[in-house]
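Radical SAM protein
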Amino acid sequence: MKERFFKLNKWNILVENDKAKEAAIYNLYNGDIIELDEDWAKVIHYLQTGELISKVDHPKTPEIIQTLSDKSIGKCYDKLIYEEKTRKGMLLPLKGIQSPPPVINRFFIQLPTNCNLNCSFCNSLNSIPCLTCSNEKSEKNVEHFDYRRFLPRILDLKPINLILHGGNPFLLGNKLNNLVNQCKYLSESTQIWVVTHWKHLFSKIKENKRNLTENLNCYIVIPASNFNEDEDNSKKFCYTLDYVKNRLQSFVPVIVLDSDNNIERLREEIMKFNPQGLYVSHIYRKSNFREFNNSHFVRVNVETFWHNFYHHPCLYGTLALTSNGKILPCPHMKKEILADVMNDSEPFERIFGDREIDKYWNLNLGKIEKCKECIFRYGCFECRAVELKLTNDLLGKFLCSKVGH
Ligand code: SF4
Ligand code: SF4
Ligand code: SF4
């Protein structure tokens, strides 16, 4: 009988953890991550190293080869081949030559606005802190140095999304519209978002519909506790979503689990208004930390795999300006100050010219001690700011059931 070899095809990548005897196949064609049991991991490991099929001494070898061939995940060859895995873009990040211009996916700007709603979860640790509002007062704020002077510098970077957040952003009155319109004027392609509680939005719409610019997109914060059999709230809420759906560019609801309410009905109600997405934010408490997972698996295509291979899944492409003029790698990493626009005349020069941002943008999960061997690290989305707050360590990891709390 002719000696043959078996190899996974170029869309399928084997990721192994030798110590734990674990492995997974990332199918970059359909986005699946296939976790392998110990037998499969062992057999596929030997086949991938170029061993002849006949030399892989395991009773399951024929079955494994047949299954993978049937699913077009790999195939048999008469001679040993090397198949370069599918990539997009550059083979390796550029080093030693001029870097390409940075691509900013999200630029957060904190507005100097307070809020009087007194939500019980305000300023508490939750699973998507940057998409929920919080009420922080600062003595100095960016109005001291004038937003308008600094905005062109930010918009010069052509961020894909610019996200305004703070307490109640509508307390800025007409200044908010001016700010949004100015941003749109400076970079037409940038999507402008505001993070706001649905009640603030409702009040704004009731006050004067025309006061809300149509250039806006909204992340709408929706505490589950607001709908404890409260019919009046439900009506106001539907009125708000109906307005937003018809008048604004787009909206994404963020349900905050601040009560034990079943949110299924709420979710169904929201979906009738055709939102662009929907997030559920969990509140972290010492009593619930075992259920509070900070690792979310996403479908992994070619872009996601190689993005996560080199970069942090969330921090890459993110920057934030606080209401007292500090530039941060993320709006909730308050102590990681990259520049202070009050004192620094060329903040972006330092951040990008000296590549200070790489410490955060290139913080792929392979650099996190507890994640570095994990077979899911190329398909895992985590919030680094939450881990930093809990461990006081930029490379710390506390919230993941895979590594144990
Ligand atoms: S609406 Fe937002 S900022 Fe205001 S109290 Fe509630 S969580 Fe805090
Ligand atoms: S160990 Fe790290 S990479 Fe693996 S699932 Fe947990 S958070 Fe994600
Ligand atoms: S790490 Fe990402 S998800 Fe977490 S707060 Fe920062 S930007 Fe948001």
